[in-house]
Amino acid sequence: MESSVFATPGVGSATAVDEDSAMSMKGHYAPPWADVSIIGIAGSSGSGKSTISQAIVKKLNLPWVVILSMDSFYKSLDAEASRRAFRSEYDFDAPEAIDFDALVECLRDLKAGKRAEIPVYSFEKHARLERTTTIYSPHVLIVEGIFALHDPRVLDLMDMKIFCEADPDTCLSRRILRDVRERGRDIEGIIKQWFAFVKPNLKKFVDPQREVADLLIPRGIQNQVAMATVVQVIKQKLLEKSEDHTAALKRLEMGLQSEPMSEKVLVLDPTAQLRGMNTIIHDVETNSEDFIFYFDRIATLLVEQALNNIPFTSATITTPQGYTYNGLTRQGEVSAVIALRGGAALETGLKRVLHDCKAGRVLIQNNEKTNEPELHYLVLPKDIDKHEAVLLLDAQMSSGGSALMAVQVLLDHGVKMDRIVLATYSAGRLGLQRLTKAFPDITVVVGSVVQDAEERWVEKRYFRC
Amino acid sequence: MSAHPEKPKPAPVQCVGPEYRSESQKPTATVSTDVEFETVTVLPQTPQLIALLSKIRDRDTERGDFIFYSNRIIRLLVEEGLNHLPTVEHTVTTPVGRPYDGLAFEGKICGVSIMRAGEAMEQGLRDCCRSVRIGKILIQRDEETAQPKLFYDKLPTDIAQRWVMLLDPMFATGGSAIMAVEVLISRGVPEEHILFINLIASPEGIKNFATKFPKLRVVTAFIDQGLDEKNYIIPGLGDFGDRYYTM
């Protein structure tokens, strides 16, 4: 099957994060993937659904388009049914073979902007495998399968419904080729299956889906006009969504100038050393060795300060002389997530303080045309939802758009809001307010607060490119 | 100097944590004893600092962890110590061509470690001041008189023109530190140009020192309850040099 944008193998079941009640009181942030466009492509076996799906993905040429094959949702067969399947006497081409409940659940999660775990089905074993594939944050999801337009619950979630038409002879020939090459079947079995199940089902279940389709595509990908129309509609949808997201980011700013800064925003004390180091870092004349040296020093202080906000418990220890001391001990695991690429400039500081902490990485970039932050890459420690604290590191935060997105990503992966500590060298005042309005329970540790949005000059100087 | 162990006062206990948390959300711990000398700076008693001190005080902490966690505290001490050095207003141009009103560091510095435990603090000093000159002083207790005696010193020749960061992690009676300061003053270093950087101090040691050298600054992470009859700090952390180097 086609895999996901962000596959994190082995991740447990998706954890729903319901902090919304607290959020709606203050301000709300919805990432651009919160309302994924779902496109259904149905049609007889061999009608060219997957070829069309792949052609659409190729034409869109965006990283956030994911194909979800309904083959992943075949029900696992019991022993009896499995024996029939191996004799080619099991009807895979009837709606009963599909676990629509699981499909609906996945689609609803994705539509809500959450992570979904997609089952992996083995045609060799006629069973679901233990592992699942994770789909997270697609902007467009193409659901393709013989019965993509069959279940009314699925239809309700779809933004566009396509039915592929093809001549039954073509379908049979394609099916023979595919099943022999990809699914290890023999020709006799395939033909037996075709006349016993596939063909009768065509009339009974497949064809009626035409009635609910928005678009009928004859002749598959050779149909250039149909392809262009589909791509055009999707592009328009994405553009509207991007505009909505940017407007929502703007709305979060409104009325913030006059509001006081959240008490959970902690700015490093402007000591003589910090001011002196900041002067060196801001000086255009500073050479790279000095820049990196002083930035690492500040990064270390930032991480030290960030760690004052993680949970501790009282602990009595005994010294070598046998005296006791009532001190503190850290609870549970603390991990970090590096917001690339700026956050990587804080990694030396991180390692000086927590030499072996697990570190996830997330790459969010602003689209130069729309100025919308976009999620490009994500790898998180798999047990991150169980960590006592997660430090989110970035060198700079100006408007806060990427920070909002990074925090949302952590929430979507089960990290509780009050366990997130964002540490950044400098931050724009408005960006900070926007972030703490949308996520009031996170803690932010910042080196210095600046008035205007700044371009990301720190990482340029730190990495020297 | 006080060789008379006093009965330790009860140590102050308080809730430790960030201000935005209510008292009930913060765990309690024993924090540094207060002293009334304005030349003495104690690091802010943050939960992280208390947790680090708990680690290195714990007799079950292994050497690798002891070294790592003490280095973290020492770095914070050096960062705080450097704040007491002079600076001048200094405006620079930023990469985007704007002026930035900042500060420039003034004055040359050097480190002087009291052997051997003080040498364990050199890494932390170097982490903040890359190629700093480091002098060394060896002081040991004279077997016959039981008084500290200077055995060896090697100091930068221009030390009289420098600010000196004097390094010694454990400050019990203050005998060796007082002698080290006397050596520095005899080499022409003004008392007010000496910063004593220390991890754990006793109230007696701090008092002796601040009374004898009223212009010398002390930066410490924690002032403990007192001294026992063997002049070990209570509760202390044992022999720092042994735990860092040989145990």
UniProtKB/TrEMBL annotation, chain A:
Keywords annotated in UniProt: ATP-binding, Kinase, Nucleotide-binding, Transferase
Domain Phosphoribulokinase/uridine kinase per the UniProt entry, residue ranges: 38-225
SUPFAM superfamilies: P-loop containing nucleoside triphosphate hydrolases, PRTase-like
Annotated pathway: Pyrimidine metabolism; CTP biosynthesis via salvage pathway; CTP from cytidine: step 1/3; Pyrimidine metabolism; UMP biosynthesis via salvage pathway; UMP from uridine: step 1/1
Pfam family, one: PRK
Phosphoribosyltransferase domain span: 271-450
Protein family (similarity comment): Belongs to the uridine kinase family.
Name used for this protein in its record: Uridine kinase
Species assigned in the record: Apodospora peruviana
Automatic annotation (TrEMBL), chain B:
InterPro entries reported for this sequence: PRTase-like (IPR029057), PRTase_dom (IPR000836)
Keyword set, alphabetical order: Allosteric enzyme, Glycosyltransferase, GTP-binding, Nucleotide-binding, Transferase
Pfam families tied to this protein: UPRTase
GO biological process: pyrimidine-containing compound salvage
Domain named Phosphoribosyltransferase: residues: 44-245
Region Disordered: start-end pairs: 1-31
Cofactor: Mg(2+)
Gene Ontology molecular-function annotations: GTP binding; uracil phosphoribosyltransferase activity
EC number: 2.4.2.9
Listed pathway(s): Pyrimidine metabolism; UMP biosynthesis via salvage pathway; UMP from uracil: step 1/1
Family: Belongs to the UPRTase family.
Protein name according to UniProt: uracil phosphoribosyltransferase
Annotated source species: Apodospora peruviana
Lineage: Eukaryota, Fungi, Dikarya, Ascomycota, Pezizomycotina
